[in-house]
Amino acid sequence: MTAFINARVIDAAGSPPIDCATVIVSGSRIEAVGARLDTPENANIIDLKGKTLLPAFSDAHTHFGGSDRLSRPALGGRDITYDFAYNSMADIRWGVTTIRSAGDFMPDIVSFRDEVISRQLNAPRILTAGRMFVAPGGHPIDTVYSGSEAIRDNACVVCYENTDIESEVKALTEAGVDWIKVFISTLNKMNYPHPVPRIPRAVIARIINASHKYGKPVMVHVEDLRDMEEAAELGADSIEHCIGVGSAQPYIPSESLLNKLVGSGVYVVPTMSAIKAHDGMLNGAEPVFPHLLKAVKAMHDAGVKLAVGCDSGIPFLSYGECVHIEMELLSRAGLTPMEVICAATKGNAALFGMQDHLGTIESGMLADIVILEADPLEDIKNTGRIMLVMKEGRIMFDRLLNASA
Ligand SMILES: [Zn+2]
Questions:
Q1: Fewer CB within 10 Å: C terminus or N terminus of the chain?
Q2: What is the pLDDT of residues 78-107, one digit of tens each?
Q3: Is the domain of 45 the same as that of 25?
Q4: In angstroms, what is the span from residue 349 Cα to ligand 1's centroid?
Q5: Residues in the 5 Å CB sphere of ion ligand 1
């Protein structure tokens, strides 16, 4: 049993911060939280005077077999990316204890996920879409992943005219995925501005309907506001990205779009860090990041649910660290530090369907905890000043206790 004492606690459950707080962790769970609680006699006491304790973060959009470096394969399985080890360590070191993989090699990502669950591996808990539904000749299979047969064979379902959508969804479900991922995009990042084919609207509808029939939520990749509206109309559970690099007007969300996003309850994962990192890299495309900032603010003001994800695993997006960049950019778009922190913890947990046991510092919740050396409510950049990371009651990263030993 561990008792953290004298902490400033941000519970992310909606309360103002608690000062001089005690948090008692027993096994994998948080047993009690409150100001100046009595500590059990047998507890290992950790004094957090001057420090802030909050729920661990999550990344709602990653490719776990990807790489932030151009020198590595764009996407791979366990052997190509050293058993996802580097990416796991980076996530944990940055306080990211849950990730949603938005397209990865099968069966590798599912077996890895299961080994994390059974505690054979120290890594973030994973939800995964496994294979991505893509159009022949389309994005990303014939744009950024062009020429990679391994990616096509292991990480994609290519939707030809005669593809039996329902049996593909069923097969993925039986193979153990948590989500279904599908692309709506004609953007050609390799030969801009010449468009690539996309999955037709009727087929997207079939994919979403079949997924829901088998109890799987659907994440839909879009790159502009028109495609976003289509995704919301068709019943997407989360919409990935928003205004992508090289995307066309309009850049201001219409009343109709905002109503559909709010009315459907869909989550939007704007991946601002990815758009910012790649903005200006496409020859002939105008910068879009200033438009994205305004669009995110408009969605937030309208009450759209925003989730925190990075697209880590694509070039220049560092695992774990990018979650902190994403939080900073969301705050630049107009969210308060408290709103940003809640989005990256409780909000993402709700997107994952895990809100009953993850994402807040409350009695009964899993002890996924981050300790910061400075208060992120004063400066959102302080989320990156991590002293200790706990996942399910186990210390996974520590420069607090070791430093004082
Ligand atoms: Zn992605």
A1: C
A2: 887 667 888 999 999 999 999 999 999 999
A3: yes
A4: 19
A5: 102, 311
On the question of a cis peptide bond just before residue 193, with omega within 30 degrees of 0, the verdict is yes
Q: Considering the entire predicted model, what is its pTM?
A: 0.97
For residue 140, say if its preceding peptide bond is cis, omega within 30 degrees of 0: yes
- Regarding whether 92 and 35 lie in a shared domain, the answer is no
Number of domains present in the structure of the chain: 2
- Domain containing 96 equals 57-351
CA of 70 to the centre of ligand 1 (A): 16
Q: How far is the CA of 310 from the centre of ligand 1 (A)?
A: 8
Please give the distance, rounded to the nearest whole angstrom, from the Cα atom of residue 404 to the centre of ligand 1: 40
CA of 61 to the centre of ligand 1 (A): 6
Distance (angstroms) between ligand 1 centre and the Cα of 79 equals 21
The angle subtended at Cα 291 by Cα 306 and Cα 232, nearest 5°, is: 45
Q: Are 122 and 396 in contact (CB under 8 A)?
A: yes
Q: What is the mean pLDDT of the chain?
A: 96
Distance (angstroms) between ligand 1 centre and the Cα of 309 equals 9
Let me know whether 250 and 296 are in one domain.
yes
How far, in Å, is the centroid of ligand 1 from the Cα of 231?
16
For the record, the structure tokens of 171 come out as 């097969």
CA of 203 to the centre of ligand 1 (A): 20
Ligand 1 center–CA 6 separation, angstroms: 40
**d(C-alpha 389, C-alpha 195), whole Å:** 44
CATH number at residue 199: 3.20.20.140
DSSP string, 82-120: GGGHHHHHHHHHTTEEEEEESS--TTHHHHHHHHHHTTS
Count CA atoms closer than 13 A to 82's CA, side-chain side: 7
131 and 268 fall within a common domain: yes
